[in-house]
């Protein structure tokens, strides 16, 4: 791949090593996939919002708060994720 900020590749190059391409994207690169030198797709990491739970817990400890992660925490997070995720409904190409 080219420059870490942005790379251009063909569909065949993408198909040949998708795992490596996704690793570069995870590291911050954007990949423009081309067909006959025409861009057809842009692959980039999703925008991250909010803070990691480890950052929240560290901030709570520094502030002296007595919040705890209890046995229901995982269930609560999973329920919140279900409520905020939208199902993926790709278009039909038929």
Please, could you describe this protein's structure?
- The protein has 94 residues and is of the alpha+beta class.
- It is built from four helices and three strands.
- It has helices spanning 11-16, 18-26, 53-63, 73-84, and strands at 6-10, 30-35, 38-43.
- The protein has a three-stranded mixed β-sheet with strand order 1-2-3.
- A hairpin with a 2-residue loop joins strand 2 and strand 3.
Compute the gyration radius: what is it?
20 Å
> Mind summarizing the main beta sheet?
3 strands, mixed
The helix tally amounts to 4
Quote the average pLDDT.
Answer: 85
Strand percentage lies at 15-25%
CATH architectural group of the largest domain: 3-Layer(aba) Sandwich
Number of strands: 3
CATH fold-level label of the largest domain: YefM-like fold
Strand order of the largest sheet: 1-2-3
Number of domains: 2
Termini separation (Å)? 33 Å
Helix fraction? 40-55%
- Pairing-aware structural class of the strands and helices? alpha+beta
Q: For this structure, what is the CATH class of the largest domain?
A: Alpha Beta
State the shape: elongated
Secondary-structure element string: EHHEEHH
